[in-house]
Amino acid sequence: MLDSSLSSLDETAQETRFSIVIIQNSVSDPLSEVLALSGLRAACSVRLQAGGTWALQFRPIELKFNVVRRGECWLRMDGMAPCHLRAGDCFVVARTPFVLASGPDVEAINASDVFSHAGASAMFGVGDDVELLGGSVSLVGPAAMELLDALPPALIIRAGSGGASSFGWLLDELDREWQSNQAGAHAMCNDLLRLIFIHVLRHRITAADATDLNWLGGLRDPVIAKVLRAIHGAPEKSLRLAEMADMACMSRSGFTALFKTRVGQSPGEYVTRWRMQVAASRLRDGTDNVATVAASLGYLSDAAFGVAFRRVHGKSPGQYRREALR
């Protein structure tokens, strides 16, 4: 009986190991691959408690994530009507100054003046009517602009929506890790901020109007998403228009029109741009020279690679590599 049980357990373990191998061989995921080249870095995590009449102006480095943990406040930005926020509401601001306040017309002071004395946790005004938790990130990789340009200046995720609970939980975990001083806390913060950003992008893809999504709109269209997976999964291949149209089971003219509507670029432009972003990432690593990177992406001529690279990045591969290494 014991031998039979051990044999059964061994078979189960072998099946489990086999399942893990299958999971690892997943299909290409364009959003994950763009994120991998975005160079996301944690900048800071802060908590704010405020009360009475108050207003603070923030100037995010690139992206700032926030959740109202308790109470209510107002979000103000140029070009946008004041927005009333309640407990559980989350918001993301991209590269745009904004004001958090007790009312829609209270005069603001710079938040940096408050946090320079208080550190990562600040109290402002009289009392603690409202509590906010936030995290900031910077994006320094070659694909950073692809993600930043896909976001509006401000994105509000209401407490009643599907994404708000995950968003708030992740920010809570970020706050705990940032203040824990445990081994690996900085790496954990980076990973949590990455997860927060992915939730933001997912919310954007599912909730926004297709015309406002830029290239993210292609991920919402099953036909275009299939082609995007092929482009991102094999950057060493310069896919021809006929090949991409065949994948989509469309005529070349019909596919080109649909791709440009969904993605905002022609298929050929998108293929070249992605290959050059991969090239930029490999040049930044500093281990391969220009010729090696060109060959790894299927270019038979360094000159042809240089022309394509300059068209996307505005400088030669060699200049880009030297500047990145410095």
From TrEMBL:
Its main location: cytoplasm. Pfam families: Cupin_6, HTH_18. Residues 225-323 form the HTH araC/xylS-type domain. GO terms for biological process: positive regulation of metabolic process. It comes from the Bacteria. It is found in: Cytoplasm. GO terms for molecular function: DNA-binding transcription factor activity; sequence-specific DNA binding. One of its GO terms (cellular component) is cytoplasm. Keywords: DNA-binding, Transcription, Transcription regulation. Regulatory protein of the TOL plasmid xyl operons. XylS activates the xylXYZLTEGFJQKIH operon required for the degradation of toluene, m-xylene and p-xylene. This is HTH araC/xylS-type domain-containing protein. It comes from Pseudomonas mandelii JR-1. The lineage of its organism: Bacteria, Pseudomonadati, Pseudomonadota, Gammaproteobacteria, Pseudomonadales.
